[in-house]
Design brief:
- The structure is a single chain.
- Helices cover 25% and strands 29% of the residues.
- By secondary structure, the protein is α+β, with helices and mostly antiparallel strands.
- A hairpin with a 6-residue loop joins strand 1 (3-5) and strand 2.
- Helix 1 runs parallel beside helix 3 (110-122).
- The protein is elongated and about 60 Å long.
- The chain starts with a strand and ends in a 20-residue tail after the last helix.
- InterPro entries: DHP_3-monooxygenase, FAD/NAD-bd_sf.
- This is FAD-binding domain-containing protein.
Length: 142
């Protein structure tokens, strides 16, 4: 792999690569954001006919890894991405409760996570995820 020399530290870094990520949504966008931080380009191929998804209305558990990811890579003005919860319910397609878990955990919405990822990946803003004008780039890990 070709390398370039960092003009500030003199360290050798890999040359910028371009990745194509198939499957999109949250995992693909998270991968794309991490690759940008490393100085690479990426294209995320989503399986959706529109550039943004609308009205998913699904709540998801915001576990430690997800909260750590947003704490590290989120450059949007919005910093609150989860709320505490003591009960999680699973519903069938008709909306009836089929399982309940009583435990403390943080919850977030699928829509909010998606819009934050899009704002951080390619700058698409939404009412819930406006890009911060003073933080336009991600910190470099080296």
């Amino acid at each position: 792999m070709a390398t370039i020399t960092d003009t500030i530290t003199g360290a050798q870094k890999p040359d910028r690569l371009h990745f194509v990520i198939v499957g999109g949504c949250l995992g693909g966008l998270a991968t794309g954001i991490a690759l940008k931080v490393l100085g690479h380009n990426s294209t995320v191929l989503e399986h959706h006919p529109t550039p943004l998804l609308h009205d998913q209305r699904a709540d998801i558990v915001a576990g430690g890894h997800a909260l750590e990811f947003f704490n590290r890579y989120n450059r949007c003005q919005r910093k609150d991405i989860s709320v505490p919860s003591t009960c999680r319910q699973y519903l069938d397609r008709d909306g009836y409760i089929i399982h309940t878990v009583t435990a403390s955990h943080d919850m977030s919405s699928w829509d909010l996570n998606y819009f934050l990822m899009r704002a951080n990946y390619d700058g698409i803003s939404s009412p819930s995820a406006a890009r911060s004008p003073n933080k336009t780039s991600h910190p470099r890990p080296w």
